[in-house]
Amino acid sequence: MERRTRDAAICAGISPYVAHEYSKCFREMIGSAAASCFGVAGVASPRGVRVYKNGSGLTVDLHILVFHGLNIAMIVRSIVTRVCYTVKEAASLNVHMVNVFVDGMISRG
User: Fold this and answer.
1) CA within 20 to 30 Å of 41's CA: 32, 58, 67, 105, which one?
2) What is the rounded distance in angstroms from the CA atom of residue 47 to the CA atom of residue 24?
3) Which residues contact 24 (CB under 8 A, 6 or more apart)?
4) Residue 73: CB atoms within 10 Å
5) Alpha helix stretches (DSSP H) within 1-109
């Protein structure tokens, strides 16, 4: 296992094969992946990111804020792709479902 993957798994409090718990570090990694997508103004607090074990993979709930005037469906597709890729690369875990909740819109002002 390459160092980056091992370090992410240790940070997340998981082995690459079995998820034991999802630490704050792991949730922050997922939140950062989502927040880096075009159109995302930020991750909403206090709900933010929740991760659940779902069979052999994970279910992720994300509460986000988006910029007004952008295509929300496109933003959500980008988030789902990036979150699945980030979790797979960092912790060798599959994400079965990403639920994205848009909690608000912000003007670009």
Assistant:
1) 58
2) 13
3) none
4) 8
5) 3-12, 24-35, 72-91
The CATH code of the domain that includes 96 is 3.30.70.1350
Amino acid at 103: D
Which structure tokens are listed for 79?
Answer: 């988030």
The distance from CA 83 to its chain's CA centroid, rounded to whole angstroms, is 4
At residue 5, φ and ψ (nearest 5 deg) are: -65, -45
Please write the tens of the pLDDT for every residue from 90-105. Answer: 988 899 999 999 999 9
Distance, CA of 1 to CA of 75 (rounded, Å): 32
Q: Which two tokens stand for residue 40?
A: 């995302």
* Enclosing domain of residue 72: 3-106
Structural domain count, the chain: 1
